[in-house]
Amino acid sequence: MILRRRTRTIHVGQVPVGGTSPIAVQSMTNTDTRDVAATVAQIAALQDAGCEIVRVAVLDMEAAEAIRAIREKIVIPLIADIHFDSRLAVAAMENGAQGIRINPGNLGGPEKLARVVDAARTHHVPIRVGVNSGSIEKDLLREHGYPTEENPTALIESAMRNVRLLEELGFEEIKISIKSSDTLTAISGYQQLSKLTDYPLHLGVTEAGGLIAGTVKSSVALGILLHQGIGDTFRISLTRDPVEEIRVCFELLRSLKIRERGPELISCPTCGRTQIDLFSIAEEVERHVQKMEKPIKVAVMGCVVNGPGEAKEADIGLAGGNGVGIIFKKGKLYKKVKEEELLDAFLDELKKMEQI
Questions:
Q1: Fold exhibited by the domain 10-255
Q2: What is the CATH number of domain 264-355?
Q3: HEC assignment per residue over the chain
Q4: Residue ranges per domain, the chain?
Q5: 10-255 and 264-355: identical CATH topology
Q6: Looking at residue 115, what is its pLDDT?
């Protein structure tokens, strides 16, 4: 059983973060925030996949002002990602951002930071202190060296220095992230940071890579940390459609028995007995179940003879070959169809199960 590290609770919009709240799944749009229609469409897809908090890049004042129109069309809380410009942080909050991600030391000095904090307090907006290996202050790098697995001190000190800047202004609605592109540095850094503060932590491996490399690196780092009870929100960063990030997030949570959302898909790796296009079928079934919320077990198997028995723990499954497709439930034959009708028939059965 995983024992969560106890942290303070903050709220990002209606989503509680920290304390005993469920670990929240985040992503970030890769659209131009100024393109309201494209950004809303992508957030809608993320919502369907289960994303609970979304972040958008705020590059200029037009993007900050677009947040108002975006907020009117989405359900999940929206965080504004700000770099360097305090005016954009204030404008984003004035236009409805429910959280901001900043590096406080990079906003141009105490007066500008104070204006940001005043706006956050006025609009009841929490602040994520977001530090990564590439944004550490030069004096900390000189003192502690570039962060590594053995010595992530500069990363941690940068985060805590910036947290103190907010605390000195009487602001404590804070979440912290210290991201590295190195898996072991991320693990070590978060492990040490978790012993120094009770603010909620947002986990991530930055610039993790594409679907395969990014999934592996992030799952290793975040899986270890989550298993140790560290982390209150997290993002799997992939150079892909961000919907893929959400899919990986929930599979990671499911594998650790932390949270379940929607069906668990099991499928055979195929062998010489496979006589149907199992890869295409599995991909279509996977796309469909991502929009389902019922926590059932779904199997996609290649062999009519052995498939049902090998996946007898599945609530529902399919297999096919030699022109015949079968749908089975709990290892027992439920329905036979023509092989070319198998996928459509199976998706119809899944829709019925979702409605029960």
A1: TIM Barrel (3.20.20)
A2: 3.30.413.10
A3: CCCCCCCCCEEECCEEECCCCCCEEEEECCCCCCCHHHHHHHHHHHHHHCCCEEEEECCCHHHHHHHHHHHCCCCCCEEEECCCCHHHHHHHHHCCCCEEEECHHHCCCHHHHHHHHHHHHHCCCCEEEEEEHHHCCHHHHHHHCCCCCCCCHHHHHHHHHHHHHHHCCCCCCEEEEEEECCHHHHHHHHHHHCCCCCCCEEECECCCCCHHHHHHHHHHHHHHHHHCCCCCEECCCCCCCHHHHHHHHHHHHHHCCCCCCCCEEEECCCCCCCCCCHHHHHHHHHHHHCCCCCCCEEEECCCCCCHHHHCCCCCEEEEEECCEEEEEECCEEEEEEEHHHHHHHHHHHHHHHHHC
A4: 10-255, 264-355
A5: no
A6: 94
pLDDT confidence tier of residue 207, bands split at 50, 70 and 90: confident
pLDDT digits (tens, 9 = 90+) for 53-101: 999 999 999 999 999 999 999 999 999 999 889 999 999 999 999 999 9
